[in-house]
Amino acid sequence: MFERFSKDARDVVKSAFTYVEGGGGGSVEAEHLLLALLDREGSRGSFALAALGLGPDEREPVREALREARRRAGLSRAESDALAGLGIDVAEIVARVEEVHGVGAMSGDRKDTRWWSGRPSFGRAAKDVLEGSLRAALAQRDRHIGDEHLLLALTVRPGVPAEVLADHGVTYASLVRVLYGAGGEAKAG
């Protein structure tokens, strides 16, 4: 599949590995792909983000929201709300764990969880995004998978990245409008 990736899309994947190797966990996850996309400039994905109000100077709140979700062990608001419905206060659990083990203890950034080779691999969420990017490219009849397709795939996969992007006005529908105009209505599921 990677042979269909454009240079921009390959650079996003390489940058995602850099985030993991820099202490961001044991495997590449969807959050790492989003962080790598936020670093891009001069690509279709970065153009789309800027057109939707997330230019390079406006991306720090997205990074902060991802850091905060990581502190909550990667739980989305929907998951935290569901636990609250069961009487479980995620904020209280995070506070207690951090009181004992330090800030960020629930983030999953432990270095001793890597596969035996010492090289990070793709987690389930990242694999879903990569597969979704292929579906997004096919839905738009694009020959190659660009960073914009990774961004589209992040918006349709349930979880923290889609939630954070939606909070900042970046949804699948808004991206399709920016990237393809009114005619690009196909869904990349």
Automatic annotation (TrEMBL):
**What Gene3D superfamilies does the entry give?**
Clp, N-terminal domain
| PROSITE patterns assigned to the protein according to its UniProt record, in alphabetical order | CLP_R
Which residue numbers delimit the Clp R domain?
2-185
Q: Which Pfam families match?
A: Clp_N (PF02861)
Tell me the SUPFAM superfamilies matching this sequence. Answer: Double Clp-N motif
Q: Tell me which Gene Ontology terms the entry assigns under biological process.
A: proteolysis
Q: Which GO terms describe its molecular function?
A: peptidase activity
Q: Which UniProt keywords apply?
A: Hydrolase, Protease, Repeat
What is the protein name stated in its UniProt record? Clp protease N-terminal domain-containing protein
Which organism encodes this protein? Answer: Streptomyces levis
